[in-house]
Specification:
The structure is a homodimer. By secondary structure, chain A is of the alpha/beta class. The first copy, chain A, has 12 helices and 11 strands. A 7-stranded mixed beta sheet of chain A has the order 4-3-2-1-5-6-7, sandwiched between helices. A 4-stranded mixed beta sheet of chain A has the order 8-10-11-9. The two termini of chain A are 39 Å apart. At the A-B interface, α7 of A face α7 of B.
Chain lengths: 301, 301
């Protein structure tokens, strides 16, 4: 049995879902000789934990019952997230702290600290990939450890591994897609004639419109994702601020009706390629014919 | 430099495209320490070849100029395809002979013969995967060699490797898609009001409607592909004859107009899942709303 010690930094929805997988797939993993042991957990406001074997079932039950980790008294620690990363006993650090889209921090510092200790790192945070992909990849390589980030963009679709593991000797020449759920949801419902306030309320209820949706609406989230895709798949060396970016806040009912009159719909499209003058990345609302594949990408799909 | 000797059985469009890749990617492959040497080639009617180093450039030029391999006199052999497989000196046998959809032969025999000699096998022929996936996979495993078949279904989309290499501990529970180009092309153009004869002529001109299109039109090609997908991804153990299959030959202009009146389009949809009574596989024309993703899968996409 190979034992792998995990430090989970940040414990929101992604961490909960991951911890549930550890519980649900425990038998399958053990049948393959893999045993995972959580030895450190940090959160923004629910307490930080350190221990020899923090059981995933107990972590989930504790959060479910109390909404925080204070009930796991014997494992509570006063160490900060960064101190845990620097001092705890683990093999793999899983970086799941919240995204700060304009700097990628403090996630970049967390990842560097773990890599500098020779620990493997997995992150679901697109900030570090959008802002520091090259540096972090080089550091991981120099340290002889793995730096994995599949779920940072298009979670659920293994876009990075798809390209690396299944398309050898192929070159990605163009990226085109709809990368932001919130704007796609908003545009689709506006096109149905619903009022913006109602659409946003429904999106909040369903959990994918943030309290402050401006990062989505203004195209920053899509720009960060496009940057991450282009940095990894095309070695573009971009920052999110390099993207030619236009959000959807200026789109009016009249715009939507004009598009419909042409048999079209408006989508926030992301496009990237390496042009003659270097990488070109654009996020902008585009009128798309209803028969087009992108017109059929609805809501959260 | 690692030298890999290839026997290419069947030399139609797929083999030509593959041989061109060997030429075009030669430098990249050599930079990675890989050198490919073709040592045997068989064709249906253009002659069979055996040699220490049949250069890809010369094979392609010879076919281009003469339409057959008779000009490569010193390499011509009287050995049959199966004899070449049994006797030639190679590391990997690439099976590209034409599909025989109701038996998977003679490709299955070819693959068995190579595996029995302890040779690796790559095939683009879906027949063996639809009819003998389990047996061939077990034989390859017993012989300690690789049996690869990515391009048999959805060529260009790495569907099998995607699932195996990038979705560990995930289970495929359902397959749904449009798998046959000819019927998709025909249905789309019929929906535009074009006459069946004109549509078929255009498809033939563009190279994806066969002289005898009945295997496509009657849904057999789609059924074989669905079988291959379900056998590999769901361990379904199906034969193409197990698929509940309906083609598009009975579809009339009236059917198409009736669908359009409902805001729908007709597509030949393939669906598979493992139900309570075992695997269930269906290929049938279905009315699909125009806003649906499958409605946007047009022509050859």
């Amino acid at each position: 049995m190979k034992e792998i010690k995990l430090a989970i930094m940040g414990f929101g929805n992604a961490a909960k879902a991951f911890t549930k997988i550890l519980v649900n797939k425990k038998r399958e993993l053990e049948a393959d000789g893999l045993y995972f042991r959580i030895t450190a957990v940090s959160t923004g406001s629910k307490g930080n934990l350190q221990g020899a074997n923090l059981l995933p079932e107990e972590l989930l039950a504790c959060l479910e019952t109390h909404g925080h980790f204070r009930a796991l008294e014997s494992s509570l620690t006063g160490l900060s997230t960064l101190e845990l990363i620097q001092q705890a006993d683990y093999d793999v650090m899983i970086e799941l702290t919240p995204l700060e889209i304009f700097s990628g921090q403090p996630a970049i510092n967390h990842i560097e600290a773990a890599l500098n200790r020779g620990k493997h790192v997995i992150t679901a945070n697109k900030g570090p990939i959008a802002w520091a992909y090259k540096e972090l990849t080089a550091l991981a390589q120099a340290q002889g450890v793995r730096f994995l980030y599949e779920t940072t963009v298009m979670d659920g679709t293994p876009i990075f591994n798809l390209t690396k593991a299944t398309l050898p000797y192929c070159k990605v020449t163009q990226i085109k897609g709809i990368l932001n759920t919130t704007t796609n949801f908003v545009l689709e419902h506006l096109a149905k004639g619903e009022a913006l306030d109602d659409v946003m309320a429904e999106g909040r209820r369903r959990g994918f419109v943030e309290a402050d949706p401006s990062l989505d609406i203004d195209g920053w989230d899509a720009a960060a994702k496009l940057t991450a895709l282009m940095n990894v798949l095309m070695d573009a060396g971009l920052k999110p601020t390099d993207v030619k970016r236009q959000g959807i806040s200026h789109i009016t009912e009249a715009d939507i009706k004009a598009a419909q009159a042409e048999g079209k719909t408006i989508k926030l499209l992301c496009k990237g390629h390496i042009g003659q003058n270097g990488p070109e990345a654009v996020v902008e609302p585009v009128r798309i014919p209803l028969s087009d594949l992108y017109a059929a990408i609805d809501e959260t799909s």
